[in-house]
Design brief:
Oligomer: single chain
Shape: globular
Order of helices and strands: HEHHEH
Strand order of the largest sheet: 1-2
Structural class: mainly alpha
Radius of gyration: 14 Å
Length: 99
């Protein structure tokens, strides 16, 4: 999965399809959560991830629902600062990795 924007979901179909696939692992491929400041502040970044995690469709049908599916992921441009950026303007690289 990538480019997750919970506020734009209009149904649970995406997460029901993921659940019905009976996956052994779910991989976020980047742009996992969009924060208003593009991740330049840890509290904003943390809030965006928490909002994504508590999205009703994701919480009910996504990989965090029972039975749980292991989740891993990588970061993409918007996870590291400005969209289509290189990440060298990213203000909280170390603190993001520590969480």
């Amino acid at each position: 999965g990538s480019c997750f924007q919970p506020e734009e979901q209009i149904s649970s179909v995406l997460w029901e399809d993921v659940r019905n696939f009976d996956a052994d692992l779910f991989i976020w491929l980047g742009d996992n959560a969009y924060s208003s400041d593009r991740g330049m502040d840890m509290s904003s970044k943390r809030r965006a991830y928490n909002e994504a995690r508590t999205d009703p469709y994701y919480a009910t049908y996504g990989p965090i629902a029972d039975p749980r599916v292991p989740v891993t992921g990588t970061w993409d441009d918007n996870d590291f600062g400005a969209g289509s950026g290189q990440g060298n303007d990213y203000g909280c690289l170390k603190s993001s990795q520590d969480e």
